[in-house]
Give the backbone structure.
Amino acid sequence: MCFLVNCLKRLKSSQQWLSRQRADPYVEKAKICNYRCRSAFKLLEMNEKANILFPGQTVVDLGACPGSWTQVAVQKTNADGADSSKPKGKVLAIDKLQIFPIEGATIMSNMDFSTIDAHDKVIKALNGRQVDLVLSDMAPSATGVRELDKDRIIGLCYMAIRFAALVTRIDGNLLFKVWDGKEVPILEMDLQRFYKSIKIMKPKASRSDSSEKFILARGFRGIQKPLENGQWG
């Protein structure tokens, strides 16, 4: 009986998801513009407001699968060399899952960016280039337990912050997704130690019933080191 009830719940959830997809204008727009999913428009909108992507930049996209943010990053940084009159950028896309090739991007599939091995591979792939912008649209698979899911995405956020600290140039930027909750102000305070400005963004392409928002941290200060008198500088 329980099995039947669970099956019916999953069926209802799937039907609701399909109905929402059919009614979502960004889903159709993504198909027309040849983006892999609707999330591309979140990054496009935030970039229009904040101007964080431009030709010649080096960008790392964490948790990139299926690759729509990577597609946008390649276009905006000219990583595919489509415009010979502009500087050519470099885009690295990382994910535990398989990412199908994207022209102009270096794809690093089946790789957990939180590991030391992943860090070494990314640094080698950068070939001496420091990163201008780290992107992360990652979210954990939902467990259905609200507080657990929030804890898991906060964990991903801190992993992204630590990773960015290893590869980002001074004054570089970080943009990542978080779910609204009491942990977010603490996250912002921690970011203020390493970045000059912090801004919360909620693009129109985010669904109205979603608790997601994005944190843009600008102006990386670098990793501060303790001075001889015990102070930080």
User: Anything to note?
Assistant: Strands lie at 58-62, 90-94, 105-108, 131-136, 168-179, 195-201, 212-220. The longest helix spans residues 2-23. The CA atoms of residues 42 and 203 lie 6 Å apart.
